[in-house]
Amino acid sequence: MILIADSGSTKTDWLLIDKENTNQTQSIGLNPYHINNEFFTDVLKNEVNHKLKIQQHHINEVYFYGAGCGAEQKQKEVKSWLSKIYTKANIEVASDLLAAARAVCMNRKGIVVILGTGSNSCIFDGEKITDTQISLGYILGDEGSGAYLGKILLKDVLEEKLPQHLIQKFYKDYPLSLNEILDNIYNKPFANRFLAGFTKFIGNNIDDPSLQKIVKNAFNEFINRYLHKYNNYLDYKVYGVGSVAWYFKDIFINSCLESGLICENIMLKPMEGLKNYHSKKLV
Fold it and tell me: φ, ψ for residue 11 (rounded to 5)?
């Protein structure tokens, strides 16, 4: 049996595969920068194993893809936590970027982008990640992401740079004062999630040219700042994963075309692709 995890800072999607069937569930996010061994073990033993009806010694392989698992030290840390639970399993811990690459590219080469709450990208050669661009997070970077879109939207609302009908609609949907907005951004945890939450407003009103411009400019910034830095970037097709890439895919595909790139495939979540990628081992 194969256990696959696609973990973000907010939630983790789990998939259990054997030859006969599959089973899925969700748990809280398990970013190793935010949790410890005790918390991790408790979630797996009392939540994941229970929901999926897992007998720990029946797991042969574990693939844990996670936010915060790009560094080798964190990979070793999470692997040691998993090995204490699934004692007979071969375990691989890797970044969420590799999960995206395997999911959308399978064994093809391409430029892989994640556009969700945050943003990231890499070059995938069909087997491994060969190049990446620096990821600076939502304060210094994350262009093209949900947090970035939310930040630009908020600035334009607060500075009254959007049409009045949109501003009025925004405050009707989000009756927040300036102090409440600033408090959520500067004092409360998970400001990136708070900002990204406003992409729903953009999506619900995307027919408005002002909001289309915000999204298009964000994608152009992402493409110009990161994708164009890869050597021979025009030799690769683009593959995307994430809610922002998915829900605004027409704008993203067009932005790629205008920069000379072809967007081949976009997935909302990588799990279905990971299922296909790893199920080959059970055939």
Answer: -145, 165
Could you tell me what percent of the chain has a pLDDT over 90?
68
Maximum distance among all alpha carbons in the chain? 62
20-28: long-range contacts at Cβ-Cβ below 8 A with a sequence spacing of 24 or more?
A: 22/275, 23/52, 23/53, 24/271, 25/51, 25/52
Are 167 and 160 in contact by the 8 Å Cβ rule? The answer is yes
Residue 64 has φ and ψ, to the nearest 5°, of: -110, 110
Residue 238 token pair? 């683009």
Q: How far apart are CA 57 and CA 211, in angstroms?
A: 52
Q: What is the pLDDT of residues 94-137, one digit of tens each?
A: 998 999 999 999 889 999 999 988 889 999 999 999 999 887 77
Residues in Cβ contact with 262 at an 8 Å cutoff, skipping those fewer than 6 apart = 237, 238, 256
CB-based contacts of 8, cutoff 8 Å, min separation 6: 29, 31, 66, 67, 96, 116, 117
End-to-end CA distance of the chain: 12
Q: How far, in whole angstroms, is CA 266 from its chain's centroid?
A: 12
